[in-house]
Design goal:
Blueprint: H1 3-19, E1 23-24, H2 30-39, H3 46-56, H4 70-79, E2 80-81, E3 89-92, E4 98-104, E5 107-115, E6 120-123, E7 127-129, H5 138-142, E8 144-147, H6 150-158, E9 168-171, H7 181-192, E10 204-208, H8 212-221, E11 225-229, H9 235-241, H10 250-257, E12 268-274, H11 282-292, E13 298-303, H12 317-329, E14 333-336, H13 354-361
Parallel strand pairs: 1-2, 6-9, 9-10, 10-11, 11-12, 12-13, 13-14
Antiparallel strand pairs: 3-4, 4-5, 5-6, 7-8
Helix pairs in contact: 2-3, 6-7
């Protein structure tokens, strides 16, 4: 007769233990930290102090917040942790590109640091895996395990040794940013706000295959650059490469983009991986010109990096140049993006942590 009450008591203890897990401060906006300070009876100015320690002084422990009283630091420590998480592994390419492996709540993610002569770019992830299942992408082949929190997005940036060298951030790593819109937007707020990193939005680009609901929110709430993965100007052909074309037609995406100003602070670009005999003909180039004429934009042509189980080949250099020149002659600003980090599987479309997850779990 005591079995059920005893089981209920055990469940209560488990719940209590789990509910007492400390919350993570990293990734919280100023407004969220102001609410915390109000809830715990801390002075209102403490919120800005905490943000300064988290995002400008980049501390890893609450005890390092030395301008907050010892009493209040103890109160914070009883309920919160900073939440910094160093990389588990790093691989370095022959070209200087580095790929970092981070453990997150839903598994593992990869983050890529790309140094160049006058800039240093960090390619960050927004999800563990991806739901979009684009034919040419290793991340999509991995499947989807979960969204990153704002803190897990910001941690990728803060926790690499090259942080002070960074000039640009691109959301072009694992996952679809507009399938995880709110945490991604909070990360952009922290990156660009006075209380955070105070970066110009011009230093940040968010890449998407064109999930319209999240993209609308982004266009209203942020001034960061936008990159759209296009890869084929013909709807039926694009659908074979990118299944989301069924739900979000590229022409509908274009209609939305035409409602916004891309002539001043914000830029829109179109990512176009070239596949031999699939999307690299003059027929495709002419349709691109038809679609994009009159839109202030640029096209980035990208070499395809073969992945297992996919019967696609990359276009050769001569055809890429011919394709670029045709677009340029027709007043579409076009560049060929230099491939980086292919030897460590860090190039465009090659990020995947499915193997890493298996190895860590064994």
């Amino acid at each position: 007769m005591f079995i059920i009450p005893f089981l209920l008591f055990r469940c209560f203890l488990i719940f209590e233990k789990n509910s007492m897990q400390p919350d993570i401060l990293l990734g919280k906006t100023l407004h969220e930290i102001q609410l915390i300070c109000s809830e715990f009876g801390l002075p209102s100015y403490t919120a800005k102090q905490i943000c300064e320690w988290l995002y400008q002084k980049r501390i890893v422990d609450i005890d390092q917040m030395t301008n907050i009283s010892q009493k209040n630091r103890l109160l914070l420590k009883q309920n919160f942790v900073v939440g910094r998480n160093m990389a588990h592994e790093v691989q370095e390419s022959v070209d200087g590109t580095k790929k970092y492996l981070f453990k997150v709540s839903a598994g593992y993610i990869e983050t890529v640091y790309i140094p160049e002569e006058e800039r240093a770019t960090l390619c960050v992830s927004s999800q563990v895996g991806c739901k979009m299942n684009c034919l040419f992408c290793m991340t999509g082949k991995q499947g989807f395990s979960g969204n990153l929190s704002t803190g897990e997005i910001i941690n990728q940036i803060l926790s690499i040794p090259e942080f002070d060298n960074l000039t640009n951030i691109v959301f072009m790593g694992m996952g679809e940013p507009f399938d995880n819109t709110l945490p991604m937007l909070h990360a952009l707020e922290i990156l660009t706000s006075f209380y955070g990193f105070a970066w110009s939005p011009r230093r940040i680009t968010v890449s998407s295959i064109g999930l319209i609901p999240g993209m609308k929110v982004f266009l209203e709430e942020s001034k960061c650059h936008l990159a759209i993965s296009l890869h084929n100007p013909f709807s039926k052909e694009r659908e074979l490469l990118m299944p989301t074309e069924k739900a979000y037609k590229f022409e509908t995406i274009l209609q939305l983009l035409k409602m916004y100003d891309f002539k001043h602070q914000r830029r829109v670009s179109f990512e176009y991986i070239l596949f031999e005999g699939v999307n690299d003909t003059m027929r495709h180039a002419r349709e691109l010109v038809r679609l994009l004429s009159g839109i202030e934009c640029r096209v980035n042509l990208i070499a395809f990096h073969p992945i297992p189980g996919v019967d696609l080949k990359g276009t050769d250099a001569a055809q890429m140049i011919k394709f670029r020149d045709y677009l340029t002659e027709n007043k579409i600003v076009t560049t060929i993006r230099k491939s980086r980090g292919e030897d460590i599987l860090a190039a465009c479309g090659m990020l995947s942590t499915s193997k890493s997850s298996e190895e860590k779990n064994n």
